[in-house]
């Protein structure tokens, strides 16, 4: 399933979708695109997604653009891990929460755990509700929180700061990826049955079971995140069993629904995952008539034969971002080149207005641009117009497009009036 399938379904079955894009307030944040944190060879069947790849021949003629996310991660590796999580506002919870994988606040009273609930550190916006802003969002403070809460393991085994950041990013990314995978499962059911499922059934069921042991989606998301991290340790010198134990201990400290993952093994896909499938499929209005109750063993056989209904869609790897709240403690500490940004749509418009660059064609996860004077080489620029480019990356792109304009001149440039 690819993004054009989603657009086709949205057109043919508009009652399956909603539009919450207006609740997003992007100017209050810096949105920095980042890559999937896995080596491609480490992808599992569940995550074996169908994606249009960037053509190597296209980019072999281009020049690499500095990755602002890598600069942010390098900075996070050296930053004090004791930075506090700032309180969430009702505005943030309303904009980014209220659905599977959405941003949640620290659970109250007896539901709160010794460690921070993972959907407080990163969150997912579903394409059923956010046509333009859907994707995975990781809070830089979330990376620091995971580092702090897994620090006993990291110190005991001499895990370096950069590897700590990699492990933290993978845990957060894979947890949120699984929420995307479950939404893809619901979309396949909608395509088969022509019945709205995700917004009308999955989301209410999730909200009813959230922070209870019956919230199988969170158990599966945590289990999936752990197994993916353990299967992608290439280049990180960490004992696998020790890391499994440390992650499970971290899960134990989280609220109900999340903590149950500490008791799962790599067989979660045959246990918790099937409970999730059955729980959500039983929300289908005709389930009682067409699907009589069956033993769990029969369910395992049936779902194994049915294939991977929760494979994600290809474009998810180009919809992963860091989200930095302007005016926050962390934002004020960012290097100035990362703190001062311009929305991609404005940056591209300025490239054209200044006569510096012109759009050539779409690449895989990028647009390909060339100098307006016809000289020089193709430069890839991120595609998603609502995201941000730090000034350091803008400066590098200007240079690669052959411009001598300073970043200050570029940012203050105003096109001449026709009058």
Topology of this protein?
Blueprint lengths: L2 H10 L16 E6 L21 H5 L7 H11 L11 H7 L25 E4 L9 E4 L1 H10 L1 H6 L4 H33 L4 H12 L6 H16 L8 H13 L19 H10 L5 H4 L5 H11 L13 E6 L3 H5 L2 H4 L1 E3 H10 L3 E6 L3 E6 L7 E4 L5 E3 H10 L6 H6 L7
Parallel strand pairs: 3-4
Antiparallel strand pairs: 1-4, 2-3, 5-9, 6-7, 7-8
Helix pairs in contact: 3-7, 5-7, 7-9, 9-10, 9-11
How would you characterize the overall build of this protein?
Strand 7 and strand 8 form a beta hairpin. By secondary structure, the protein is an alpha+beta fold. The protein is 44% helix and 10% strand. It has helices at 3-12, 56-60, 68-78, 90-96, 140-149, 151-156, 161-193, 198-209, 216-231, 240-252, 272-281, 287-290, 296-306, 329-333, 336-339, 344-353, 391-400, 407-412; strands at residues 29-34, 122-125, 135-138, 320-325, 341-343, 357-362, 366-371, 379-382, 388-390. The protein folds into two domains: 3-318, no CATH class; 340-412, Metal Transport, Frataxin, Chain A (2-Layer Sandwich), CATH 3.30.920. Helix 3 packs across helix 7 (161-193), helix 5 (140-149) crosses helix 7 and helix 9 (216-231) runs antiparallel to helix 10 (240-252).
